[in-house]
TrEMBL record:
This is Multidrug efflux pump Tap. It is a multi-pass membrane protein. PROSITE patterns: MFS. The keyword Transport applies. The keyword Membrane applies. Signal peptide: none annotated.
């Protein structure tokens, strides 16, 4: 027990926030995520209302995933090589422009002049541009996060970073769904899609200003070798690191099969019949579960036995997906979405901390790019899988199938990594353990 001569060390839950650049990073990420989540939820609802096609929803994810995965490694190479603040300014300006194009395309007078296929083509093209931007966004922000706070604060910083993302993911869909549903009642003649895109543009502009407030982050790594050799070095680092490889694989396949986000418009309109506002609440429920869990994890870290806790969290995620698929009561569905977000947040914190601690500074961009290929685009690819599965299996069987596959993947991973489950974070960091 602690005594007066040897008091217990004080836990500073706000340690990472005491660094100015980290606060700017958190603010930038919050406003950008808020805007992007609003845009995502209304795009899915708008396209499903326009087409009543599950395949059309599936192509939202595919349109973003193809460019994001296709040039992810090159994005990591560029992020290692160039100044990060300038990169983010260009990226955010590009995303802002694509949102402006979607805003104009969905205006009532403009949309009335276009065929449905024309509207879809423009929206998919702009979503693809966002996927292109994401290939560079992930590696750049990964490096900025790592250099904005001391290494010993990574677990605390990861919790705050993930929490800001989750809070924005709560408020974004909720706000987007509410505005989409009620804008016309508040201001006659104003459509929900127009009002939502207008607010999206405003918050994206705020995030762009916050990027401008960051200090410059010059490259740590100046490659002299051929680009392909440099990229191969990043791939080899990940694939020879057992913990990192299995953590990425676990997330990739669990989200690929277990993601239900793409099908929420179908549940909102056809199964639970709760409309746009209900869709916003469903999208919020998952993020609310994640955010509240992350707030708890600021004080009670899951890093005592990270690998064991990661497997438990992903298993809980799969069970929650199955429960959601079986439910036909709105509030019960919200409960399972809440639990899904709670379990997912635990895995996000553990995986993010492990990646930051095991990645050397000169390889952060390239390792983040590999991570982006595994994890960053798994949501969108999972959305495509969910839409196609729902087309052929039916919506509810597709969700249950996804949750079942997630549990199977956790079981296989546990069998492959039994020796890692009792280890502490310090033991995992020891040389040779992760190999």
């Amino acid at each position: 027990m602690p005594d007066e001569e040897n008091p217990a060390p004080r836990i500073d839950s706000f340690a990472a926030l005491r660094y100015k650049d980290f606060r700017s990073y958190i603010g930038m990420r919050f406003f950008f995520t808020f805007a992007y989540q609003m845009q995502t939820v209304v795009l899915g609802f708008y396209i499903y209302q326009l087409t009543h096609s599950k395949v059309a929803i599936a192509f939202i994810g595919l349109s973003e995933a193809i460019p994001a995965v296709g040039i992810a490694l090159y994005g990591g190479y560029i992020a290692d090589k160039y100044e990060k603040r300038k990169m983010l300014l260009i990226i955010f300006a590009g995303v802002l422009l694509s949102s402006l194009v979607m805003f104009v395309t969905t205006l009532t007078n403009i949309a009335a002049q276009l065929h449905t296929n024309g509207i879809l083509a423009i929206l998919y093209a702009m979503i693809a541009c966002n996927g292109l931007a994401r290939a560079f966004y992930g590696p750049a922000t990964f490096t900025i996060y790592a250099q904005s706070i001391p290494k010993e604060l990574y677990p605390n910083g990861s919790t705050w970073s993930s929490s800001s993302w989750q809070v924005a993911s709560i408020l974004g869909p909720l706000t987007g769904g509410a505005i989409y549903a009620f804008a016309g009642h508040i201001i006659p003649g104003l459509t929900g899609i127009t009002a939502t895109f207008g607010l999206t543009l405003l918050f994206m502009l705020v995030s762009l200003v916050l990027v401008y407030m960051l200090r410059e982050y010059p490259p740590v790594f100046i490659p002299k070798e051929n680009i392909w050799i440099s990229l191969k070095e990043g791939l080899n680092f990940v694939f020879t690191n057992k913990i990192m490889f299995y953590a990425m694989s676990l997330d990739l396949f669990s989200v690929f099969f277990g993601g239900v986000v793409a099908l929420l418009p179908v549940f909102a309109l056809d199964i639970l019949k709760v409309g746009a506002e209900g869709l916003g609440i469903m999208r919020m429920a998952s993020s609310l579960g994640a955010a509240l869990t992350m707030l708890v994890m600021i004080r009670f870290s899951p890093m005592n036995k990270p690998w064991r806790n990661l497997l438990i969290a992903v298993a809980g995620f799969g069970i929650s997906i199955i429960g959601f698929g079986l439910s036909n009561i709105f509030y019960v569905s919200l409960l399972f979405l809440f639990l899904q977000g709670a379990f997912d947040s635990v895995s996000v914190i553990i995986r993010g901390t492990i990646m930051q601690l095991l990645t050397p500074d000169h390889m952060r961009g390239r390792v983040s790019a590999v991570n982006s290929m595994f994890i960053g685009s798994s949501n969108e690819i999972g959305d495509f899988e969910s839409g196609i599965a729902a087309k052929f299996l039916g919506t509810i069987p597709a969700v249950i199938f996804g949750g079942t596959m997630t549990l199977m993947i956790v079981s296989i991973t546990w069998l492959k990594t039994k020796k890692l489950t009792p280890l502490s974070l310090n033991q995992i960091q020891q040389p040779g353990v992760s190999k």
